[in-house]
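[Target chain]
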Amino acid sequence: MKTIRNRLIALLYIFLFVFFIIIVRVGYVQVVKGEIYVERAFELWTRNIPVSTQRGKIFDRNGKLIVGNKLAPTIAIIPKQVKNKRYTINALSTILKIPPSELEPHFNKNVAVEIIKPAGKNISLETAKQVIAADLDGVYVASDVVRYYPYGNTLAHVLGIVGTDNQGITGLEYIYDYFLMGTPGAQNIYTDAHGNKYPDLIGSYTPANSGFDLYLTIDIDIQLALERVLNNVDMLYKPVDLIGLVMNPQTSEILAMASRPTFDPENYQDYDQEIYNRNLPIWKAYEPGSTFKVVTFAAGLEEEVFRLDEHFYDPGYAVVDGTRIRDWKPGGHGDQTFLQVLQNSCNPGFISIGLRLGKERLFKYIRDFGFGEKTGVDLVGEATGIVFDTEKIGNVETANAAFGQGNTVTPLQLLNATNAAVNGGRLNTPYILKGFGIPGTNTLIFQNKTKFVRQVIKPETSMLVADALEQVVAYGTARGAYIEGYRVGGKTGQAEIPIGGVYAPGKYILSFTGIAPMNDPQISVYISMNQPQSAIQFAGIILAPLIKEVLLNSISVLGLEKQEGGHIREPRWYVDNFFFEVENYIGRSPKSIGFHPYYRIKIIGDGDIIIAQSPEPGEKIVQDGYVTLYTN
């Protein structure tokens, strides 16, 4: 009996011990680990409908918004919660205006949450309201965002594009995607193991966090002025392409950058890939023509191979190793100083400078000014251009290089080199990022600085170059860009276009570089135009007024004051600007009548000799006017 009693007591103790262990374990689970297990349970019950991140905004140098975000809802479904699949599909297809067959695969997927894309991705607010009003089981509307462009396609190539997944694809959006991206959020819905919504549990919302804001060196007011000019030129002359660039010559900050053709970043899918993938001011490399002569002129002055007051005679051509290289002006410029060689953009004069330097010294300066390598600008897709290998060229190639033929450059390389020629001789790295900012605070946590590359020429030489370029605008080929009181300097360019190894007749890239003020350069502008549809093929006539307009707007935006001194434009320019003397065509064959740079020619009749013309030979005709020739 006593044995049975002892066994019962032992069993009771064991039971109490086990019960105690269970109580301790339950208490441990509920009290100590309770929060963790509840969180895990909620994770199992939760269906997360993703909410896209708020990308950082993009501002100009003065804090003006260039790219923001706007609400663009997205439709998501939890397939297991859809009670009447056919009804839901038909209802959504009506609202989204797409065939039911496009929606059906989404509803048949064995997933927790399915995004209806592309049809239900980033829909309009009106469409979202219709979806909500339909009150469809298992159908949800998430509050996504997309990019907002208050200035439309302004700065499109520089900014780049953002895909439907809210990631940067090109341009600054791609380069700084890591900083702009931010953290995505979610709309949380609680369901059971079968995907059915818990009626007593209210879902939660995890907000998306913004990425860092981006501040650019761009001045949006100068950018808008440049875009307006390019738009007008595009409509008037219908060129193959157009390029515009504005910089600060002292720091190499990019103040404006644009090109045509352009695109709408919100609807980039509507354009050919080559349009939105190519940022022409940094991507396109071509023979620069006479705008390159600034480099040769600066190198020659630095090496003292000529004096500004030294005389040079131009017969209209130069003969180099038996090769005749013509000047752009038939008959040449005659006797002139080397300062006038720059003013008149005289090719034989620059050939002389190039040969006096020799290929080794000339090409040393070409490379020192930054050609043949990338500038290092913080943009994607930059080209290097092509510079002759000095071991494989002779005097003819050296002569051509001296006045801007043979080598290829990008617009950014060319303008940055011109900046170095006039800013005291300092070559800097161009840049477009001003800094990163904390969202919503206008507080920069990082600020970019000017990066000095090398001293190319002495400050004294740079002052001479700057004064010479001011005289090009006052007395030379660039007079159309003259602005009284602001000491504008500049250089025109007209580059032939090689096709199949041969320069194509009548096909040119016109370009113009303008800078102000020349005693303290603060703004530099470059515009190039590929094959404008105009009888006038001279940059001094077509592009000078455009450069002047951009400079005037930039001067106003930057608040630059008028400068003392400077060179006064020749008065005769006001008289002779748009009128030209008509040649004598009588007695000539119609087949011998080619393109004329100042006026248009119309031939009437199918005879083989010109017997009359209007206006008469020697009379004046307005620029771009018609000379009518009559045959026998």
User: Anything to note?
Assistant: The radius of gyration is 35 Å.
